[in-house]
Design a protein that fits this description.
With 319 residues, the protein is α/β, with parallel strands linked by helices. Helix content is 33%, strand content 15%.
């Protein structure tokens, strides 16, 4: 194993176990090498760029560049209040789809839509949003937020047309091209249907056409704020590791996230809970590629939820 690979493995282990001081120490060593050997800022593909070079953020106008995925931005915008506590001004240069949510976020003075040109903002220091926790030496207190940290703009929206009594469950099963191990064959989700469970598809893209195969009503939307309102109307979401998991967690909604056996660093290696989102429950493969056992576990857990909901309704409306 090369020193770089060993360093990455150590950092991943530190993040998964919540040893953030060790993670930032590893980042410090990597940053020292970066400052000495390069590459230059703002060169290469955006998602690979390292922007911050250790500059002091105190009393500075800070431009936060959102160069990773939508879910990454939602996850890391939680650090804006802590950043704003030391900075004079925080400008968020974020994906246009997220603007209606992030312009309302605590700690953000201004949010602008990301584009391929030069940002229309004056700043003293710039940083990529996923570098912020290292820069502010974030601890568990600013990571394990126990309440929702995003709110939705006021807007009239439709209500879910419920197909009878029971548990309303939103589904997402397909992902982008970055890591297809996260995706679940749509046919497997059909076993979640029925027995008091009503399925609704939040899936976007070509895979949305598979909703009928699952037996799920398609209520998907390209609008992030509308998606957030839809999630809040559902009893829960069952999804793979994608933006919907982060949006549900940031809004404090219940979501069950289905993880492959070698899941991303942001999820713990063991257990069914995560520091990042208290409203999320994790279900994981016991063997690479084995989604069938995961879906069996989810099916049993859903039936328990149905029984609990029925008991609550009986207690609220006794005969």
């Amino acid at each position: 194993m090369s020193p770089a690979d060993e360093s990455q493995e150590s950092w991943t282990d530190a993040m998964r176990t919540g040893d953030f001081e060790r993670a930032w120490a590893i980042n410090d060593r990597d940053l020292a090498v970066l400052c000495r050997l390069g590459p230059e800022k703002h060169t290469g593909p955006r998602h690979l760029q390292r922007i911050w070079r250790g500059e002091d953020l105190r009393d500075k106008r800070v431009l936060v560049r959102c160069y990773h995925g939508l879910g990454d931005t939602i996850q890391f915008v939680r650090f804006m209040p802590a950043l704003r506590a030391v900075a004079r001004e925080v400008t968020l240069w974020c994906q246009p789809e997220l603007l209606p949510l992030l312009e309302r976020a605590n700690g953000v003075d201004r949010a602008m839509p990301l584009h391929d040109g030069t940002p229309d903002a004056e700043f003293d220091v710039d940083i990529e949003i996923m570098e912020v926790p290292h820069a502010i030496r974030a601890g568990k207190g600013s990571i394990a937020i126990r309440k929702p940290y995003l709110t939705l703009p006021e807007r009239d929206g439709g209500t879910i047309c419920r197909s009878g009594e029971g548990l309303t469950v939103g589904l997402v099963w397909e992902v982008g091209d970055w890591d297809k191990r996260r995706a679940i064959p749509a046919g497997l989700l059909r076993r979640l249907n029925g027995d008091g469970v009503n399925l609704y598809s939040l899936q976007r893209g070509p895979a949305a056409a598979q909703a009928a195969e699952i037996g799920a009503a398609d209520i998907s939307t390209p609008d992030i704020a509308t998606l957030g309102r839809t999630i809040k109307q559902l009893d829960m979401v069952v999804c793979v590791d994608t933006i919907v998991a982060h949006l549900a967690g940031a809004l404090g909604c219940e979501a069950w996230v289905l993880l492959h056996s070698d899941c991303d660093w942001r999820w713990p290696a063991f257990g069914n809970r995560t520091l990042w989102y208290p409203s999320l429950r994790l279900f994981r493969q016991s063997a690479p590629g084995d989604w069938s056992s995961v879906l069996r576990e989810v099916r049993l857990a859903l039936l328990e939820q149905v029984r609990a909901k029925d008991q609550d309704e009986l207690a609220d409306h006794p005969a």
